[in-house]
Amino acid sequence: MTEDRRSNDTQRRIDEAVTRTHATTEDQIGIVATVGGEPLVMEIFGSPDLAEAHTPDMIRAIAFDVDGYDPFPSTPEQILNFLDIVRDVTFQRTPRESGTTSISGSHQHIDLRGIWSKDRQYIHAIALNRAHPVLQGA
Q: pLDDT: is 6 or 52 the higher one?
């Protein structure tokens, strides 16, 4: 019960912080989340509307998982280096009966997973930095 209460308090605090601070720009289609100054994950969508709808939940999930880490800003260079590696991922395409295509691949320490619809109306991709200290031992 104590653990549940602590989790509920943490979740409430995170929800309040995300509600106060989250705002997407007009053309934003994704986010790079950093922890301890290092990029942890990139998540992109096929449109600003999808990004606006899903980014707060992504931020809440990551914030809950890394609660207790001291905030430490990342540099633009760190983020651009991360995105350069993501860009170099060669991925496999797997068509699905639903008309969507799954993608997956890896390069160096980055895993990329995603899905898009045949008409490209829905696109969602996630790149995870497997070498991030948060994931060590996970």
A: 52
Burial group, residue 138, by CB count within 10 angstroms (0-12, 13-18, 19+): exposed
Structure pTM?
Answer: 0.79
Evaluate if residue 2 carries a pLDDT over 50: no
Q: Per-domain residue ranges for the chain?
A: 2-135
- Look-up of token digits 């880490």: 69
> CB of 125 within 8 A of CB of 114?
yes
The DSSP output letter for 120 is S
Q: Residue 13, Cβ neighbours under 10 Å: how many? A: 13
The DSSP element (H or E) to which 133 belongs, if any, is none
Rounded to an integer, what distance in angstroms lies between the CA atom of residue 133 and that of residue 35?
A: 9
Provide φ and ψ at 91, rounded to 5°: -120, 155
Backbone angles phi, psi at 24, to 5 degrees: -95, 155
Question: What average pLDDT does the segment 64-92 reach?
Answer: 86
DSSP 135: G
Bridge-based pairing state of the strands 100-107 and 110-117: antiparallel
Q: What are phi and psi of 87, to 5 degrees?
A: -60, -30
